[in-house]
Specification:
The chain is of the alpha+beta class. It is 40% helix and 19% strand.
Length: 244
């Protein structure tokens, strides 16, 4: 809360006021129309009382015979604000601090105070006004965003991924995305062929043949020219001779 905030900064310069001689039913109608629970009673500008909604309601109900004997009560039209008004609201100076207003509201058990200058009411401050003016303003601002960036990035599942981990994950996803599917398939097929050849009766590809190179040659057993020589018992033979 700003320590230099004064009553003048937050007070309502236009407020609801009535005089002692005003009709009570009309004042009650004003309470209803304006949706408020209290009117300031003034006498030549000086605050001399208050008219609260419950006091006005009690007086009108009693005058109409609801909840009591109306024989001894005046008619509602005969009642005035001065007949049922309560004591004046707490008063403050327009130059008083907002902290002083809060102290008066608490000590007096009131929900509003009247600002008085030169003996005349010049404004009203409610407890809601004081609360709104004194509420702290919060916000992370730029520093908050910087801290969040350093700490990590929030995921939709509520977990937090650190900046370094996020970069690593992005790099892995990028490598997977650029991998050639055909090359992957070829490597998988080659590995499968090597495994099968390694467990098939000791027959292997021709020794010394570079990976991916042709093994075409002449079978040392039958002399046939074949595209896929294999080694069996130390000889480069065709698949047919290997099976003999």
């Amino acid at each position: 809360m700003r320590t230099d905030t004064t009553v003048r900064d937050v007070m309502h310069r236009e407020f609801l006021g009535v005089s002692e001689s005003d009709s009570l039913p009309e004042a009650a109608a004003l309470l209803v129309d304006e949706e408020t629970n209290c009117l300031v009673v003034v006498r030549g500008g000086e605050p001399v009382g208050r008219l609260e909604s419950r006091d006005a309601l009690d007086a009108l109900l009693s005058a109409t015979g609801v909840g009591g004997d109306s024989a001894a009560e005046p008619s509602p039209e005969a009642l005035t604000v001065g007949d049922v008004m309560g004591p004046p609201l707490p008063t403050v100076s327009p130059d008083d601090s907002l902290a002083a207003v809060e102290e008066r509201l608490v000590s007096e058990g009131a929900d509003r105070v009247v600002a008085v200058a030169d003996g005349e009411a010049v404004g009203v401050v409610t407890d809601g006004d004081a609360l709104a003016a004194g509420a702290p303003r919060t916000g992370a601002g730029v520093d908050g965003f910087a801290d969040e960036s350093a700490a990590g990035t929030s995921r939709s599942d509520g977990t937090v991924l650190s900046t370094a981990a996020a970069a690593d994950s992005d790099a892995e996803r990028g490598a997977e995305a650029t991998m050639d599917p055909e090359a992957t398939a070829e490597r998988t097929a080659a590995a499968s062929r090597d495994e099968s050849a390694g467990t098939d009766g000791g027959a292997d590809s021709v020794a010394g043949a570079p990976s991916g190179a042709s093994t075409q040659g002449v079978c040392e057993n039958c002399g046939a020219l074949v595209p896929d020589l294999v080694t069996a018992n130390g000889q480069a033979v065709c698949p047919n001779c290997r099976e003999i």
